[in-house]
Design goal:
This protein has 275 residues and is an all-alpha fold. The protein is built from 14 helices and no strands.
């Protein structure tokens, strides 16, 4: 008659030790890792290896190897941190579930929202909960939000040149993001200076941009202030270096085409002929 093995709690291994009845069933990554280590340790013990040798081979502590060797079933090791103990996040889980169903899938934003409500712990616990419990839940199907490229294009386009549908979408986007609305205002005022040659307004624009809570815009305004006189002249005068830059670009293109094939005389002729 086969011997019946008993678990740590004194019960038999049948039923209580099965993966289906354990707190972490088959498929859970921590459970599978523990089962694999348990099988490896017992296989090495059966092959005659000492516990110290097993600890060196597997890179485990001796106490961990002893704990694995004393467990007749891997499910006996699912204690302590493996159990569903109450956490500080429990009171906020209904709110996280509700916001997930509303379409908010950004773990960092969810953490900031519950942190404002009094959640005392860090971002990692929220990220783990979202990854384990919410990623697989279905979300309500809604209209696809516009891409960042599309919104950028709408902001950089003159409002009168936008199609009606694009104008409506941009209005909805700006209404839901205070920072993006402020950025659009600064971009359009700068575009007005550029097209209307009103460079005298640049110092006031730089002052407004540096006081805005927009780090990227602040850096752009700061770099403009490093060469303020030249930028004001560029925004005030009708002349520019576009023609010169075009010739420079053409000559560089000819040089790249002829690299390693001809000398200066042929390059000179091509520059003169293609001018």
């Amino acid at each position: 008659m086969p011997e019946t093995r008993t678990g740590a709690a004194g019960g038999t291994s049948t039923g209580a030790g099965s993966p289906a009845s354990s707190p972490w069933p088959t498929g859970h990554r921590f459970a599978e890792r523990t089962r694999a280590k348990h099988a490896t340790v017992h296989a090495l013990l059966a092959a005659g290896h000492s516990k110290r040798s097993i600890a060196r081979q597997l890179g485990m502590g001796l106490n961990t190897v002893l704990r694995f060797s004393h467990a007749t079933e891997p499910e006996q090791l699912f204690t302590g941190q493996w159990q569903s103990r109450p956490t500080k996040l429990d009171a906020f889980k209904p709110y996280l579930d509700e916001r997930w169903q509303e379409g908010c899938t950004n773990a960092w934003k969810l953490w900031e929202e519950i942190k404002a409500q009094g959640y005392p712990d860090g971002y990692g616990n929220v990220r783990a909960y979202v990854s384990r419990n919410l990623r697989g839940k279905p979300q309500p199907v809604g209209p696809r939000p516009p891409s960042a490229r599309a919104v950028t294009c709408w902001i950089l386009t003159h409002p009168e040149a936008l199609a009606e549908s694009d104008r409506i979408q941009l209005k909805n986007v700006l209404a839901n993001c205070r920072e993006l609305d402020a950025l659009a205002g600064h971009v359009r005022s700068f575009a007005h200076m550029l097209t209307q040659l009103q460079g005298h307004q640049l110092p006031a624009w730089i002052e407004a941009a540096t006081t805005a809570d927009l780090p990227s815009l602040q850096r752009f305004a700061w770099h403009l202030g490093r060469d303020l006189d030249a930028v004001i002249a560029g925004l005030s005068q009708p002349w520019n270096s576009g023609v010169v830059e075009g010739h420079v670009n053409r000559i560089k293109m000819l040089k790249r085409q002829m690299f390693g094939r001809a000398g200066f005389e042929l390059l000179r002729k091509r520059v003169l002929l293609y001018s």
